[in-house]
Amino acid sequence: MNLKNHGLNCLLLLPFFSISIVQAQDTIRITLPEAEKQFLQKNLNLLAEKYNIDIAKAEIIQAKLYTNPNLSFTGAIYNPQVNKVFDVSNKTGEYIVGVQQLIRVAGKRNKEIKLAETNTRLSENRFFDLLRTLRFSLRSNFYSVYYLQNSLNAYQNQIGSLETLSASYELLKVKGVVTLKDAIRIKALLYSLKAEQMALQNQINDLQAELRILLQNNKTYFIPVSEKNEVLAASLKNLNLADLVDTAYQNRFDLKLAENNLLYNQQNFALQKAIARPDVTVGAQFDKRGSFVNDASFFTVAMDLPFFYRNQGNIKAAKIGIDQSKVMLTQQILSVENEVQSAYTKLLNTDRILQSIDPGFRDEFESLLKSITENFQKKNLSLIEFTDFNESYKQNILQINDLQNQKMQAIETLNFTIGKTILNN
Asked: Please, are residues 284 and 98 in contact by the beta-carbon 8 Å criterion?
């Protein structure tokens, strides 16, 4: 490649990489507890799901209501004997008054109440499972932004040093002290870091968008603040897989949802069988003049004869619903156990790798970077050695940040899979 053309191409890229990283006007430093508090107060998905619980509770009230009695009145439109319209008088008129009350048999009302109560628990299970899912998204994104921001800062430190060095080399190049080749390689390294920094900033921007949705704040750029050291250094010896699975059994609301769904279908099956039994209507009737005697009183009883309709289809469907719910519950149990085991194994593996890294390695590496830069400026190091070390520094810092993020993500995944925060910052 022609060296002059290569240098020209790099210079043409300068306007692109010199674009500053624009953040939202309102920037807020926020801790995880503060973010969770704001999330619980403002998240619209949670607020909407809460209404379903209120709706289900209203259905319990509805199920407890008794049917209203029925009052009927029948009067004569026209009496031809006395040539009188709407003759309901006591002397010559005719009218019939009746009252009826539906009596539901086979405990239908109580069964409907139980069904409505179980439906309320299902709504609550859905709400808390949604809370678990959204809360995991919040915490996961919080830590991702935190560590990506750390990596971004590492890039910025390295870029700042290289910008100073590149400016110095430009002056030395003009004086003929250094070659064009060396000046271009320094500038190429600088542009490469800026390009990677821009890609990293784009990742952060995507996560920021998700945070703004979760926190219902579209005008803020959040800077996560975390005291993570205690969690990263926490011992995992007390964690036992069997205990974690038991904890998940007690706290996973999607599992409770599957259990209550089975209960709902069992209760619905009992209700559908009860519906097959016909209800009874009882009442009383008074007939002024149209019966075998005047002022006749009657007692009435009525019920459907279950010859054709015995609710056969709904009973069969409810029975199938029970079988289906049992299969889904078994599947959910297996899913919970597998998720907990996978999250636990991932956390142990990540922690084992992270614990093998010297805690002081990063600080030593950053001090060494300054020393390397100074020695390169003093001509004690070659350009190849300098660029190799910068690349090594970048890769190691990014890997350390990534490993720390992976452990925090593994912790949050384990918390998510057992439905309870056991490791917190």
From this structure: yes
